[in-house]
Amino acid sequence: MHVAVISDIHGNRHALDAVLADADDRGCDEVWCLGDVVGYGADPDGCCAAVRSFASVCLAGNHDLAAIGSLSTDSFTDDAATSATWTGEHLTAEHRAWLGSLRPQATAQSFLLAHGSPLHPVWEYVLTAAQAEASLDAFEEQVALIGHSHVPLSFARDGNRPVVPQRRTDGDEAQIGAQRWLLNPGSVGQPRDEDPRASWMELHPYDGRVAWHRVRYDVGGAQQAIRDAGLPTSLADRLGVGR
Questions:
Q1: From the CA atom positions of the chain, what is the Rg in Å?
Q2: Under-70 pLDDT residues of the chain
Q3: How far apart are CA 17 and CA 224, in angstroms?
Q4: What is the CB neighbour count within 10 angstroms for residue 157?
Q5: Beta carbons within 10 angstroms of residue 208's beta carbon
Q6: CA-to-CA distance for 210 and 5, rounded, in angstroms?
Q7: How far apart (Å, rounded) are the C-alpha atoms in residues 60 and 19?
């Protein structure tokens, strides 16, 4: 088995298509999606359709839940709340129902999958060693795959030693070995590590190999689609700078 782990697509079909093509070129035969298929971007239906077609596992993210009215947007920024409302109005009934069937946490093979964290599957951003320590104590599996932060990261714990956090860049690799891990593929559709390229993670479950990849896509096309949809221009602008 050879898995493409993706997360935080956020309605960016231009980025999603580029990542799926790269994953296919690299021989991936499964796709696992960690949630936030929609929100921010201008093609929620197209992204839902593609993920439904290609992903064998898909989680619900906070933006997915907000778009269908299952989660309040009170804690969202103004632009995020505006995009959630717009997204909800532009989803087909079929895709609303599909998003409503998803959950923010699941297992696949021997891996735990959570949109936010094993401790708080919907909302928590795991960005520090202290947060990772708490999450690593919250599940039994050896490895958890997480999204939500839009930053490609890994957190490894070897026995009783402190957690080692690491920011991951294009081409980085890791071997799972005997350590326990939190692994984040970064964001397909709205990276926030100052690299505008779409981010995803390649996973070989049976031999424990992991690699992070970045893919160039038509950022200008995605930006124009956001502007044409009448969504906040800041959502378009941030795609060009990766934050």
A1: 17
A2: none
A3: 17
A4: 18
A5: 16
A6: 10
A7: 20
Token code pair at residue 151: 């930053």
Distance CA 226, CA 222 (A): 6
Tell me the pairing of strands 209-215 and 173-175: antiparallel
Query: CB of 199 within 8 A of CB of 212?
Result: yes
- What pairing do the DSSP bridges indicate for beta strands 152-157 and 180-185? antiparallel
- DSSP letter for 35, please: S
Instruction: Give me the pLDDT at residue 74, please.
Output: 94
Cβ(99)–Cβ(60) under 8 Å?
Answer: yes
Query: Which amino acid, 7?
Result: S
Pairwise CA distance, residues 239 & 243, whole Å: 7
Rounded CA-CA distance 79/7 in Å is 20
Q: Please report the pLDDT score of residue 118 as a whole number.
A: 97
Report the interhelical angle of 44-54 vs 13-25 (nearest 10°): 20
